[in-house]
Structure formats: structure tokens, C-alpha cells
Amino acid sequence: MSRVTIRVQAEAFDSAHETTALLAGQTEVGGVGAFTGFVRGGGGLVALELEHYPGMTETMMRQIAESACTRFGLVGCTIIHRVGRLAVGMPIVLVLCASAHRGGALGATEFMMDWLKTHAPFWKREEFADGSTAWVAPRACDDAATARWGTLGA
Amino acid sequence: MLRILYFAWLRDRLGRPGETLPLPPGVDSVAGLISQLHARGGAYAEIFGRPELIRVAVNQSFATNAATIAANDEIAFFPPVTGG
């Protein structure tokens, strides 16, 4: 059984602490793939407000994580996604994939980010310096990136 | 009772996070429910007249407009997701 940790939270996360937790007691890990997403500034953006669908979000995150574990033979993985108001420069999402080898660790990290972006029910609303707000539109390139993996099932 | 949820700009536009209502007579699919909501007019007509802009989940799983629905289901309508 792979070690899977899924969390949706308002608070910041500590990637070093999460990596230690993922690896605790494991002796078969040769590498950990890691991705941290941040609120990217520009165009007068001040913050993002992240909304989600409680219940379905966790279900989808777990499906994505378990699918990655099976497909890439991971020892374990961690997905933490923040919600609420996050200012420019703040971390939003953490993905960690522990594997015997580099290929699986890095491939699984990309796989999980692609599926998270297109199938986990989160929505971002941008907040600008002039007080205006706008919902972020989906990007076709994210759908294309996900399509290369076929279906979510392993 | 059907539990209907709206997220992101759908909720903003409709002015409510959701509603409960009895399964309308003759409705047994997502498409049927969309027609009922569209028939309300106003913001409902604007949103549900363009089903290509919305995604749907039935009982917290992604579904198509052809999916069947039953009394007591949870149906969520939302825009394409933008997390990560």
C-alpha cells in the first residue's frame, strides 16, 4: 500500500516537514519529485481567492493520488491544496511523489499537477489593486497536457 | 429532495450557493434538469442556455448531461475548474 496524504487547508504548508513525514520509515525511496505552486503576480494582481467543492475535492484528489501511485509505482505521495485568500507570492499547492527512481517521481508529479488543474474542483478569483475581481478562465493548454495521460484510471 | 449546488461565477450570477427542490415530474436526467432551470428565465436562462460553459457533478462525481438523476441526488453546476 502506498502512503497517500491529501489535505485541503487555509494554512500554509511546510514542504520540508511534509517530505519528512512522507519518507518516515521508508527504505525503498530513491527520490522525491516535488512541485510547489505559487500565486504569480503581474497585471495589477494582488491576491487570489480559492474556492472549492468540499467533499468532491478530497475525493478527486485521492483518486488522482491513487492513480499516480499505481501508474508510476510510487511508494507514496502527498497533495496539499490551499483555499481562501492568498496574496501574490504565497504558496498554493504542494505535490510530493516518493519513488524508487527519478523517472517515476518526476513523471508522477507532472501527472498529478495536470489532473489537479483540470479535474479537482477548485476555482480561482483574481483580486486586482484597483479593487476589481475576475474569475480565472480555464486554459486549453492545461486540458491538452492532461489529455496526453489518457484516462485517470491506471 | 434534490440538492443543487452552484459554484464560482455561477453562484455569483444566480445570487445563491444552492437550493433544494423536489425532483420535477418527468425529469430523470441532468439535461432535463438543465431545461427546467433554463425555463426560469433571467440569469438562469443565460447560464443554462449555454451548457457548454458549465460542468456538472452528480453525487460529487463528474457527469455528462445524459447522466440520470433521482430524488435525493446532489447535483452541482460549476465552471471548468482552475485549481493547481
TrEMBL record, chain A:
<dbReference type="InterPro" id="IPR036563">
    <property type="entry name" value="MoaE_sf"/>
</dbReference>
<comment type="subunit">
    <text>Heterotetramer of 2 MoaD subunits and 2 MoaE subunits. Also stable as homodimer. The enzyme changes between these two forms during catalysis.</text>
</comment>
<comment type="function">
    <text>Converts molybdopterin precursor Z into molybdopterin. This requires the incorporation of two sulfur atoms into precursor Z to generate a dithiolene group. The sulfur is provided by MoaD.</text>
</comment>
<dbReference type="GO" id="GO:0030366">
    <property type="term" value="F:molybdopterin synthase activity"/>
</dbReference>
<dbReference type="InterPro" id="IPR003448">
    <property type="entry name" value="Mopterin_biosynth_MoaE"/>
</dbReference>
<comment type="pathway">
    <text>Cofactor biosynthesis; molybdopterin biosynthesis.</text>
</comment>
<comment type="similarity">
    <text>Belongs to the MoaE family.</text>
</comment>
<dbReference type="GO" id="GO:0006777">
    <property type="term" value="P:Mo-molybdopterin cofactor biosynthetic process"/>
</dbReference>
<keyword id="KW-0501">Molybdenum cofactor biosynthesis</keyword>
<protein>
    <recommendedName>
        <fullName>Molybdopterin synthase catalytic subunit</fullName>
        <ecNumber>2.8.1.12</ecNumber>
    </recommendedName>
</protein>
<dbReference type="Pfam" id="PF02391">
    <property type="entry name" value="MoaE"/>
</dbReference>
TrEMBL record, chain B:
<keyword id="KW-0547">Nucleotide-binding</keyword>
<dbReference type="InterPro" id="IPR044672">
    <property type="entry name" value="MOCS2A"/>
</dbReference>
<dbReference type="InterPro" id="IPR016155">
    <property type="entry name" value="Mopterin_synth/thiamin_S_b"/>
</dbReference>
<dbReference type="Pfam" id="PF02597">
    <property type="entry name" value="ThiS"/>
</dbReference>
<dbReference type="GO" id="GO:0000166">
    <property type="term" value="F:nucleotide binding"/>
</dbReference>
<dbReference type="InterPro" id="IPR003749">
    <property type="entry name" value="ThiS/MoaD-like"/>
</dbReference>
<dbReference type="GO" id="GO:1990133">
    <property type="term" value="C:molybdopterin adenylyltransferase complex"/>
</dbReference>
<protein>
    <recommendedName>
        <fullName>Molybdopterin synthase sulfur carrier subunit</fullName>
    </recommendedName>
</protein>
<dbReference type="InterPro" id="IPR012675">
    <property type="entry name" value="Beta-grasp_dom_sf"/>
</dbReference>
<dbReference type="GO" id="GO:0006777">
    <property type="term" value="P:Mo-molybdopterin cofactor biosynthetic process"/>
</dbReference>
<comment type="similarity">
    <text>Belongs to the MoaD family.</text>
</comment>
